[in-house]
Design goal:
By secondary structure, the chain is of the alpha+beta class. The protein has helices spanning 18-26, 29-33, 157-170, 279-302, 305-320, 325-333, and strands spanning 38-45, 50-63, 66-79, 82-93, 98-109, 112-123, 126-135, 138-147, 177-182, 188-203, 206-220, 223-231, 237-242, 247-250.
């Protein structure tokens, strides 16, 4: 693995505030467990026209046999008649540390597609970042490594979604809440959270109180990106907008009360099988069949990421409609294979410019 090149070097590296580090240390699993639900919003233009959808789900999972949380965020739509979207699939530990995150953005313009994939994964005492940017037929790859000791107070896009739900439920943000985050071009920067207070918002036919959080990422000298997010009392997202953008995300209907999901095994109705020969073999066949069913069901329950990964793959497959499905599948999944040696043939790449549909880059 190589160290970050000069593109990521700075005279003064940003640091997280002590208040932010203390907040991360104070978050208990109980607080996080209260934030395990699905948000579903509609992306609308400033004129009120629906442009797309935005969904975030957080649930319990496991990563390399370690209990953690699976965060899946997906945004897709059409802006100025250009299909675009963003998806995040990540594993976040109980202490809100990012174990692995896959971030995919695309924008399909007439004649060619801009596509960016960023994979970050913890390996030993480093955080490894693999970035693949495809424009037309040109593909550029970069790999960066960051020592974990330099990332104290780091917050990924996935862990940011969890942190905002926790802050919204407690309806109070400590002063000087500054974390570390990556910008769109993988620069390590300061990410500050500020309380916006409460206001009234119309959701469906009801007027409700919502609590606001401002998140600002410093992208350079006098350059910042800012998002305003408002939440219901239980932590559900009610609206989200990037300052300066002509689109925003709104909740159209109040969600139902969050209830605890019970892990129940599916019940399969057994149909009688009539074998007139070798009843002992028939009995062994049935025993083995039930054993395999239980084993497969258990695996799927403990790996809910299967459905999210397949859903994202099918979405991009149907969007592009390639002639060679096998080659498309190979290219889609290959950049996230952490077993491959880092490709250092490209030392710099231009950040792909895509509409900030999901936000928080």
């Amino acid at each position: 693995m190589k160290e970050p090149d000069s593109l990521h070097g700075r005279a003064e590296e940003p640091k997280a505030s002590s208040e932010a580090v203390e907040f991360l240390a104070s978050v208990s699993p109980r607080k996080v467990d209260q934030c395990l639900f699905v948000d579903s919003l509609v992306t609308v233009s400033d004129s009120g026209r629906e442009l797309g959808e935005f969904c975030v789900s957080i649930q319990k999972a496991s990563y390399q046999d370690e209990p953690c949380y699976l965060v899946h965020a997906n945004s897709h739509g059409t802006i100025d008649n250009i299909p675009c979207g963003t998806s995040i699939v990540a594993y976040v530990s109980k202490s809100l540390e990012t174990l692995e995150q896959n971030h995919h953005e695309y924008m399909k313009m007439q004649g060619h597609t801009l596509d960016r994939k960023v994979n970050i994964v913890r390996q030993d005492d480093h955080l490894v970042v693999n970035r693949v940017i495809t424009e037309k037929e040109e593909k550029k790859k970069q790999t960066f490594t960051f020592p974990l000791h330099s990332l104290r107070g780091f917050v990924s896009e996935a862990s940011n979604l969890l942190i905002q739900r926790i802050l919204a439920r407690q309806k109070k943000i400590p002063d000087k809440m500054t974390f570390l985050s990556f910008t769109a071009d993988t620069q390590l920067s300061a990410s500050t959270y500020t309380e916006l207070g409460t206001k009234k918002q119309m959701v469906g036919k009801e007027v409700v109180d919502v609590f606001g959080i401002e998140r600002t990422i410093s992208c350079g000298e006098d350059i910042t990106e800012t998002w305003h997010c408002y939440f219901l009392q239980d932590g559900h997202l009610s609206s989200r907008v990037q300052i300066g953008s002509a689109v925003m995300m709104n909740l159209l209907q109040l969600p139902s009360t969050v209830s605890e999901d019970k892990d129940q095994k599916p019940v399969f109705e057994k149909k009688p099988l009539i074998w007139e020969e070798d009843m002992e073999l028939h009995s062994k066949f049935l025993d083995r069949k039930e054993e395999l069913k239980a084993d497969h069901s258990s695996y799927v329950r403990h790996h809910p990421e299967l459905k999210t990964l397949l859903a994202d793959f099918l979405q991009f497959l149907l969007l592009r409609k390639p002639q060679d499905v096998f080659s498309f599948a190979r290219d889609f999944f290959a950049p996230f294979d952490t077993r491959r040696p880092p490709d250092s043939s490209f030392k710099t790449s231009r950040t792909m410019i895509v509409p900030k549909v999901l936000g928080d880059k």
